């Protein structure tokens, strides 16, 4: 392998290593965004569950003799839970969009890394073919030189 070829191989290896690091960072970002989506889903589920329980409790209280202030407070709390659930649903949607963007970025990085690895494989295959060709030429030259030398010795005898 010539000096230029070694330099080219080293440069390509550094680029591929850089792409690997970018891919790992994209994987970490996707994992973080997935955790954020899971957390937002859990928070939304908790709010919905609280709201369902509150509705059941208010229904039970409405059938009994209850202070109207308690029912009014329950209604206010129910509206507040609905508002919180709505905000959490928006947060969840944004988290899902960020997760999708992170997934797209990861796929893009993986494609770029694969492209460079294929270039490297092709370059190594081409380099080894060229090395075999050069070796074959050198062996042919040695064989021809040996043949010519042997012919001269036969002619001299």
Would you spell out the secondary-structure blueprint of this structure?
Blueprint: H1 3-63, H2 68-156
Helix pairs in contact: 1-2
Q: What does the model show?
A:
The chain is mainly α and 157 residues long. The protein has one domain: Helix Hairpins (Orthogonal Bundle). The chain contains two helices and no strands. It has helices at 3-63, 68-156. Helix 1 (3-63) packs antiparallel against helix 2 (68-156). It is rod-shaped and about 135 Å long. The mean pLDDT is 90.
Strand content: under 5%
CATH architecture: Orthogonal Bundle
From the N-terminal CA to the C-terminal CA, the straight-line distance is 43 Å
Biggest sheet details: none
Number of domains: 1
CATH topology: Helix Hairpins
Total of DSSP H or I helical runs spanning 4+ residues: 2
Which features would summarize this protein structure in a list?
single chain, 157 residues, mainly alpha, Helix Hairpins, rod-shaped
């Amino acid at each position: 392998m010539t000096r230029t070829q070694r330099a080219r191989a080293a440069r390509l290896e550094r680029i591929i290593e850089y792409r690997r690091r970018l891919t790992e960072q994209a994987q970490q970002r996707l994992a973080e965004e997935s955790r954020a989506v899971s957390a937002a889903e859990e928070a939304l589920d908790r709010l919905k569950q609280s709201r369902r329980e509150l509705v059941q409790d208010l229904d039970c209280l409405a059938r009994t003799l209850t202070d109207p202030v308690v029912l009014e407070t329950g209604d206010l709390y129910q509206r507040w839970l609905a508002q919180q659930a709505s905000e959490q649903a928006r947060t969840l949607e944004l988290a899902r969009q960020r997760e999708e963007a992170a997934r797209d970025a990861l796929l893009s990085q993986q494609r770029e890394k694969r492209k460079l690895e294929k270039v490297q494989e092709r370059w190594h295959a081409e380099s080894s073919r060229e090395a075999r060709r050069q070796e074959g030429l050198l062996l042919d030259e040695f064989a021809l030189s040996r043949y010519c030398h042997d012919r001269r010795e036969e002619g001299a005898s």
